[in-house]
Specification:
Elements lengths: L4 H19 L10 H6 L8 E5 L2 E5 L1
Antiparallel strand pairs: 1-2
């Protein structure tokens, strides 16, 4: 939720490195899809998931 202070703070931090990660082929995608979150095991927010060859890897 972009209105949540913690989520907003983390999003701002990620946006500061977005250009650098683009150079390495890493893209950031935001989603508010609760069904998708549940399908990949996200039950609390904020959450960061890295996909490698289509497999979600949760960042703790």
């Amino acid at each position: 939720d972009e209105n949540d202070p913690t989520c907003r703070e983390i999003l701002e931090e990620l946006e500061t490195i977005d250009d650098d990660t683009d150079k390495h082929g890493i893209q950031f995608v935001k989603s508010n899809d609760a069904k998708l979150a549940a399908e990949i095991g996200i039950f609390s927010f904020p959450a960061l998931v890295y996909y490698e060859t289509g497999v979600p890897i949760m960042y703790d």
